[in-house]
Write a structure and sequence with these properties.
Length: 249
Protein backbone atom coordinates (compact mmCIF):
# COMPACT_ATOMS: atom_id res chain seq x y z
CA UNK A 1 0.00 0.00 0.00
CA UNK A 2 1.35 3.43 -0.93
CA UNK A 3 1.94 5.75 2.04
CA UNK A 4 0.59 9.22 1.33
CA UNK A 5 0.98 10.84 4.74
CA UNK A 6 3.53 10.39 7.51
CA UNK A 7 5.35 12.25 10.27
CA UNK A 8 7.64 14.87 8.80
CA UNK A 9 11.32 14.25 9.59
CA UNK A 10 11.96 17.43 11.57
CA UNK A 11 9.03 16.80 13.94
CA UNK A 12 10.13 14.47 16.74
CA UNK A 13 8.07 11.38 17.51
CA UNK A 14 6.93 12.49 20.96
CA UNK A 15 3.64 13.56 22.57
CA UNK A 16 2.95 17.29 22.73
CA UNK A 17 2.50 18.79 26.19
CA UNK A 18 0.22 21.58 24.94
CA UNK A 19 -3.39 21.87 26.09
CA UNK A 20 -6.12 20.32 23.89
CA UNK A 21 -7.02 22.73 21.11
CA UNK A 22 -3.87 24.85 21.46
CA UNK A 23 -2.48 26.14 18.17
CA UNK A 24 1.17 25.56 19.05
CA UNK A 25 1.09 21.90 18.05
CA UNK A 26 -0.38 22.79 14.64
CA UNK A 27 2.24 25.48 14.10
CA UNK A 28 5.04 23.10 15.14
CA UNK A 29 3.90 20.67 12.47
CA UNK A 30 3.80 23.37 9.81
CA UNK A 31 7.22 24.65 10.82
CA UNK A 32 8.70 21.15 10.62
CA UNK A 33 7.12 20.51 7.22
CA UNK A 34 8.52 23.74 5.80
CA UNK A 35 12.01 23.00 7.14
CA UNK A 36 11.94 19.58 5.51
CA UNK A 37 10.52 20.79 2.20
CA UNK A 38 13.19 23.50 1.94
CA UNK A 39 15.92 21.03 2.93
CA UNK A 40 17.35 23.30 5.63
CA UNK A 41 17.20 21.09 8.74
CA UNK A 42 20.97 20.66 9.03
CA UNK A 43 21.58 24.42 9.01
CA UNK A 44 18.48 25.65 10.86
CA UNK A 45 18.77 27.17 14.33
CA UNK A 46 15.66 27.90 16.39
CA UNK A 47 15.55 30.51 19.17
CA UNK A 48 12.59 30.18 21.57
CA UNK A 49 12.49 32.30 24.74
CA UNK A 50 10.06 32.01 27.67
CA UNK A 51 6.37 31.13 27.41
CA UNK A 52 4.39 28.14 26.23
CA UNK A 53 6.81 27.64 23.34
CA UNK A 54 9.87 27.39 25.59
CA UNK A 55 10.15 23.61 25.08
CA UNK A 56 10.42 23.83 21.30
CA UNK A 57 13.58 21.70 21.48
CA UNK A 58 11.45 18.73 22.57
CA UNK A 59 9.60 18.72 19.26
CA UNK A 60 11.68 20.29 16.47
CA UNK A 61 14.80 18.35 15.47
CA UNK A 62 17.12 21.23 14.64
CA UNK A 63 19.72 23.08 16.67
CA UNK A 64 17.92 25.12 19.33
CA UNK A 65 19.31 27.89 21.50
CA UNK A 66 17.14 29.19 24.34
CA UNK A 67 17.01 32.96 24.84
CA UNK A 68 16.10 35.00 27.90
CA UNK A 69 12.52 36.28 27.99
CA UNK A 70 12.03 38.73 25.13
CA UNK A 71 15.58 38.55 23.79
CA UNK A 72 15.08 36.07 20.94
CA UNK A 73 15.56 38.59 18.13
CA UNK A 74 18.81 39.82 19.70
CA UNK A 75 20.12 36.27 20.13
CA UNK A 76 19.04 35.37 16.59
CA UNK A 77 20.85 38.46 15.28
CA UNK A 78 24.09 37.32 16.89
CA UNK A 79 23.74 33.76 15.59
CA UNK A 80 23.06 34.91 12.03
CA UNK A 81 25.87 37.44 11.98
CA UNK A 82 28.55 35.00 13.17
CA UNK A 83 27.23 32.21 10.93
CA UNK A 84 25.48 33.84 7.96
CA UNK A 85 25.04 30.50 6.15
CA UNK A 86 22.75 29.24 8.90
CA UNK A 87 18.96 29.65 8.76
CA UNK A 88 17.93 31.31 12.02
CA UNK A 89 14.37 31.59 13.24
CA UNK A 90 12.74 32.69 16.48
CA UNK A 91 9.55 31.18 17.86
CA UNK A 92 7.79 33.64 20.17
CA UNK A 93 4.46 34.37 21.80
CA UNK A 94 2.75 37.74 22.08
CA UNK A 95 3.59 38.12 25.78
CA UNK A 96 7.23 37.74 24.81
CA UNK A 97 7.66 39.50 21.47
CA UNK A 98 5.15 42.33 21.98
CA UNK A 99 5.89 43.03 25.66
CA UNK A 100 9.33 42.50 27.19
CA UNK A 101 10.81 41.87 23.74
CA UNK A 102 9.35 44.89 21.95
CA UNK A 103 12.65 46.76 21.63
CA UNK A 104 14.61 43.75 20.37
CA UNK A 105 11.93 42.92 17.81
CA UNK A 106 11.52 46.44 16.47
CA UNK A 107 15.23 47.12 16.14
CA UNK A 108 15.96 43.77 14.49
CA UNK A 109 13.28 44.62 11.92
CA UNK A 110 14.56 48.17 11.52
CA UNK A 111 18.09 46.88 10.84
CA UNK A 112 16.59 44.30 8.44
CA UNK A 113 18.43 41.46 10.15
CA UNK A 114 18.23 38.45 7.85
CA UNK A 115 16.26 36.28 10.29
CA UNK A 116 12.76 34.79 10.36
CA UNK A 117 10.35 35.37 13.24
CA UNK A 118 7.43 33.05 13.95
CA UNK A 119 5.12 35.07 16.21
CA UNK A 120 2.24 33.23 17.89
CA UNK A 121 -0.54 35.58 19.03
CA UNK A 122 -3.19 34.13 21.35
CA UNK A 123 -4.03 37.48 23.02
CA UNK A 124 -3.16 36.29 26.53
CA UNK A 125 -0.28 35.18 28.74
CA UNK A 126 -0.71 31.43 28.38
CA UNK A 127 1.95 29.86 30.60
CA UNK A 128 1.63 32.07 33.67
CA UNK A 129 -2.11 31.99 34.31
CA UNK A 130 -4.02 33.89 31.64
CA UNK A 131 -3.14 37.49 32.45
CA UNK A 132 -3.74 40.37 30.03
CA UNK A 133 -1.16 40.52 27.25
CA UNK A 134 -0.23 43.44 24.98
CA UNK A 135 -2.50 41.82 22.40
CA UNK A 136 -5.52 41.25 24.63
CA UNK A 137 -8.51 42.66 22.78
CA UNK A 138 -10.80 45.42 23.98
CA UNK A 139 -13.48 43.91 26.20
CA UNK A 140 -11.65 40.58 26.44
CA UNK A 141 -11.69 39.07 29.94
CA UNK A 142 -8.49 37.75 31.49
CA UNK A 143 -7.38 37.01 35.05
CA UNK A 144 -6.14 40.61 35.36
CA UNK A 145 -9.01 42.17 33.38
CA UNK A 146 -12.03 40.34 34.83
CA UNK A 147 -14.38 43.01 33.48
CA UNK A 148 -12.68 43.10 30.09
CA UNK A 149 -9.80 45.17 28.76
CA UNK A 150 -10.59 48.88 28.64
CA UNK A 151 -8.86 51.67 26.74
CA UNK A 152 -8.81 53.86 29.85
CA UNK A 153 -6.94 51.33 31.99
CA UNK A 154 -4.78 49.47 29.49
CA UNK A 155 -4.85 51.20 26.11
CA UNK A 156 -5.27 49.41 22.80
CA UNK A 157 -3.98 45.98 21.76
CA UNK A 158 -0.63 46.08 19.95
CA UNK A 159 -0.92 45.57 16.20
CA UNK A 160 2.62 44.43 15.57
CA UNK A 161 2.50 43.79 11.83
CA UNK A 162 0.92 47.19 11.22
CA UNK A 163 3.58 48.85 13.36
CA UNK A 164 6.53 47.08 11.72
CA UNK A 165 5.12 47.73 8.25
CA UNK A 166 6.28 51.35 8.57
CA UNK A 167 9.93 50.26 8.84
CA UNK A 168 11.92 50.04 5.59
CA UNK A 169 13.87 47.09 7.00
CA UNK A 170 10.84 44.87 7.57
CA UNK A 171 10.95 43.00 4.26
CA UNK A 172 8.15 40.48 4.67
CA UNK A 173 5.28 40.65 7.17
CA UNK A 174 2.13 38.54 7.09
CA UNK A 175 -0.61 37.77 9.61
CA UNK A 176 -2.33 34.41 9.33
CA UNK A 177 -4.35 32.05 11.53
CA UNK A 178 -4.70 28.36 12.35
CA UNK A 179 -8.38 28.29 13.31
CA UNK A 180 -9.46 26.13 10.36
CA UNK A 181 -8.00 24.00 7.55
CA UNK A 182 -8.09 26.78 4.95
CA UNK A 183 -6.12 29.16 7.13
CA UNK A 184 -3.74 26.44 8.30
CA UNK A 185 -2.76 25.91 4.65
CA UNK A 186 -2.27 29.66 4.20
CA UNK A 187 -0.12 29.77 7.31
CA UNK A 188 2.18 27.09 5.95
CA UNK A 189 2.63 29.06 2.73
CA UNK A 190 3.44 32.19 4.74
CA UNK A 191 6.03 30.37 6.87
CA UNK A 192 7.68 28.97 3.74
CA UNK A 193 7.72 32.39 2.13
CA UNK A 194 9.32 33.90 5.24
CA UNK A 195 12.11 31.32 5.23
CA UNK A 196 12.61 31.78 1.49
CA UNK A 197 13.02 35.50 2.13
CA UNK A 198 15.91 34.69 4.46
CA UNK A 199 17.42 32.15 2.06
CA UNK A 200 17.36 34.82 -0.66
CA UNK A 201 19.15 37.27 1.66
CA UNK A 202 16.32 39.80 1.55
CA UNK A 203 16.26 40.71 5.25
CA UNK A 204 13.81 40.57 8.14
CA UNK A 205 10.69 38.41 7.82
CA UNK A 206 7.90 37.82 10.34
CA UNK A 207 4.75 35.70 10.29
CA UNK A 208 2.18 36.54 12.98
CA UNK A 209 -0.13 33.58 13.60
CA UNK A 210 -3.45 33.95 15.43
CA UNK A 211 -3.78 30.93 17.69
CA UNK A 212 -6.50 29.69 20.09
CA UNK A 213 -5.84 29.30 23.83
CA UNK A 214 -8.84 27.28 25.10
CA UNK A 215 -7.58 26.88 28.68
CA UNK A 216 -7.05 30.56 29.42
CA UNK A 217 -9.98 31.69 27.32
CA UNK A 218 -12.15 29.35 29.41
CA UNK A 219 -13.52 27.65 26.28
CA UNK A 220 -13.62 24.17 24.81
CA UNK A 221 -11.30 23.64 21.81
CA UNK A 222 -14.03 23.91 19.16
CA UNK A 223 -15.38 27.16 20.62
CA UNK A 224 -11.86 28.60 20.90
CA UNK A 225 -11.14 27.97 17.24
CA UNK A 226 -14.46 29.56 16.27
CA UNK A 227 -13.64 32.54 18.49
CA UNK A 228 -10.51 33.24 16.44
CA UNK A 229 -12.45 33.25 13.19
CA UNK A 230 -15.51 35.10 14.47
CA UNK A 231 -13.89 37.68 16.78
CA UNK A 232 -10.10 37.78 16.86
CA UNK A 233 -9.63 38.53 13.17
CA UNK A 234 -11.83 41.61 13.56
CA UNK A 235 -9.05 43.18 15.64
CA UNK A 236 -6.09 41.49 13.96
CA UNK A 237 -6.76 41.74 10.24
CA UNK A 238 -5.26 38.91 8.19
CA UNK A 239 -3.06 39.59 5.20
CA UNK A 240 0.35 40.66 3.89
CA UNK A 241 1.60 43.93 5.38
CA UNK A 242 5.01 44.06 3.72
CA UNK A 243 6.70 42.07 0.99
CA UNK A 244 9.76 42.31 -1.24
CA UNK A 245 9.30 44.98 -3.87
CA UNK A 246 6.40 46.73 -2.16
CA UNK A 247 7.00 50.39 -1.34
CA UNK A 248 6.26 51.54 2.19
CA UNK A 249 3.34 53.93 2.63
Amino acid sequence: MKKIFSRTRTLMDVTFHYCPGCGHSIIHRLLAEVIDELGIREKAIGVPPAGCAVLLYNYIDTDILEAAHGRAAAVATGLKRVNPKSVVFTYQGDGDLAAIGTAESIHAANRSENITVIYVNNAVYGMTGGQMAPTTMLGQKTTTTPLGRSIEAAGYPILFCEMLSQLPGATYLERTSVHDAKHINKTKKAIKRAFQCQLDGLGFSLVEILSPCPTNWKMDPVSAHKYVGEHMIDTFKLGVFSEPGREKS
